[in-house]
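Re: Re: ligand-bound prediction request (bumping)

Still looking for help on this. To restate: I need the protein modeled with adenosine-5'-triphosphate bound, output as structure tokens. Inputs repeated here so nobody has to scroll up.
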Amino acid sequence: MEKIRKPRGTMDIMTPDVYIWNHIEDTVRDVARRFGFGEIRTPTFEELGLFHRGVGETTDVVQKEMYTFEDKEGRVFALRPEGTASVVRAVLENGKCSDTMPLKLFYLISCFRYEKPQAGRSREFYQFGTEMFGAADPSADFTVIALADTIIKELGIKDVALHINSIGCPHCRPAYRARLISYFEENEDKLCETCRQRLHTNPLRVLDCKNETCAKLAAEAPTTVDNLCPECADHMTALRRYLDAAGIAYTVDPHIVRGLDYYTRTVFEFIAGGIGAQSTVCGGGRYDGLMEQLGGPSMPGIGFGMGLTRLILAMEQSGVTPPAAPRPEVYLAPMGDAAKAVALTVTQNLRAKGIYAECDIMSRSLKAQMKYADKIGARRTLILGDSEIESGKAQLRNMENGTQKEISLTDAAEILLGEINA
Ligand code: ATP
Ligand code: MG
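Reply:
Sorry for the wait, this slipped through. Here it is.
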């Protein structure tokens, strides 16, 4: 029979590969805790309209990359392509806007985008994201960037650069937008097909186009940072002062944009070296207009999304050794039926006390059991035969230094806990 394969652009994460995922998940949760961000979980699919309004009609994500489906009653849904829109919806729907501010949230989710699969780009991908609401001050921007920076450093990623930019606000952007459009219009014939189309709907996006001639034009284009109103300029200056004071290195990069109306002021990316073309491990920004766009009150917000696959690539590039599989503290080797019943009971007792213990369930010979214990890296062994069952005592053998000591089976958990915590 023909075997069924996984959908293109998805992945199976198998043991032991999963340990590095677990390590990243533990790290991001721990850092989020230290920054006071609480976890939020939202549905994997939402009404399609949420993403039209919350991601933007003119984006590639909405125009080309959505996994959309109709349910049995003809309602149209989409698998989430990102996390922010759902979080804003959930915050509104659950009345959290009237909570004491700031509201600081994080999530670990998978997202779905119909893209061409390649290194660092898949159709189901995993993201750690944060969203912070209610704080308009640049110290909020600093906090969110510092959170991402802390994670990246604690994961051991070395070759990474923080790029920041400000894309202005509804006061200064219209004039800038007009300047930008007229600049590109002079060279319209040199723009790629996509950029010619979006020049009038989403001109800021032309600035981060990867096409060579577009990039050349973009290099000479008027920049947002040179066209900010005094309030936006002050905001940027303050953020830079906080980053400088904290020793978080960055470059101001006019080509980092979020070309949507509800994005305001700060945008940023962490870009890793040596992991190929898909090198943005983290992208984020301020979206002071998004809450209103989704039918809520006017409320500032800022957040980021971090791609876990790209973090792993960057960790490998930095020479981080992936965590090893956990090793059993003890392997119990019973000989015979009576011993097996006792060994299972002792094993269960150890596990209930929090100790990783293994016991034969393959009816292997003693020799084969020892070989297996060695293979799984058991730190100790406890061989149980008829005489051990009778005396209630057995030899606990330390496989690392070869020492051996007699222990009472009823005290096994206390003795092991003592050794583990020593
Ligand atoms: P890109 O420039 O790679 O297309 P994007 O601007 O579409 O990124 P965001 O929507 O900002 O990405 O998502 C945040 C992060 O999620 C990205 O910086 C990246 O690390 C990760 N990411 C985005 N799309 C994918 C994908 N298809 N596969 C794997 N990771 C992804
Ligand atoms: Mg993309």
